[in-house]
Amino acid sequence: MNRLFFQPHQAGLSKVQAAEYTLRNINPDVLFEVHNYNITTVENFQHFMDRISNGGLEEGKPVDLVLSCVDNFEARMAINTACNELGQTWMESGVSENAVSGHIQLIIPGESACFACAPPLVVAANIDEKTLKREGVCAASLPTTMGVVAGILVQNVLKFLLNFGTVSFYLGYNAMQDFFPTMSMKPNPQCDDRNCRKQQEEYKKKVAALPKPEVVQEEEEIIHEDNEWGIELVSEVSEEELKNSSGPVPDLPEGITVAYTIPEKQEDSVAEVTVEDSGESLEDLMAKMKNM
Ligand SMILES: [Zn+2]
């Protein structure tokens, strides 16, 4: 976080304070509640749990989502423990120490693997560590990798909260090869966290109680066609334009297509018609115009 918004004039402020000031400046309409403490101590952990359960938009209601942007294993485990106990959905994010890979992970207690179900997943960076780090030198830091992972995290948050697109359970980022592996992982029935095991039982019951899904082909419903912000989706190319364009499509790998093609030139197009040569010189024409 400090690599993304910490500014020189904020020297001396904690990351938490600097984050609040920067974000408040960007959008003064957002309400912030800040707590600057270590969540791994017993006392703070209780308060942390309490704010997850009661710090929603409406006081006394749980929050919608917890985002983990911490830089150490203990803090991640503390978030994992709290969310398993409360059945709170959360998203984990991280950048590797060598700064050339990162990941985001959505954890729905009981439904997807928690942080204690399996060893933390990392994206193979396929790089010789010796070329990146030297003994006694501070760990590598790339604000760009941080920025990409932060962007992916927030994109997943929007899809999750606003219910559009495919929400990723795990999305990795390998900066060396621009490779974005995705996967999802079921929870481990032998997870060390007893609250994870409890949430798994409850999830199984919930799924069993669901009515059997009927196999009916339905037209996809358009979500948020009317919205209070007046946001509209406008296609930059109309269907008609796409049909009319008949230019050659280049050979492209699977999954990539062209936004539009350049129409074939037509014989009678305006550009093809040349002005008939009247034989008059430029001087003659200028004289004619003056007399008009
Ligand atoms: Zn677990």
UniProtKB/TrEMBL annotation:
Domain of life: Eukaryota
Keyword list, A-Z: ATP-binding, Metal-binding, Nucleotide-binding, Ubl conjugation pathway, Zinc
An annotated GO cellular component: cytosol
Domain THIF-type NAD/FAD binding fold: 2-192
Gene3D superfamilies on file: NAD(P)-binding Rossmann-like Domain
Alphabetized GO MF terms: ATP binding; metal ion binding; UFM1 activating enzyme activity
Xref: InterPro entries: ThiF/MoeB/HesA, ThiF_NAD_FAD-bd, Ubiquitin-activating_enz
One record GO biological process: protein ufmylation
Family: Belongs to the ubiquitin-activating E1 family. UBA5 subfamily.
Protein name: Ubiquitin-like modifier-activating enzyme 5
Gene source species: Panthera pardus
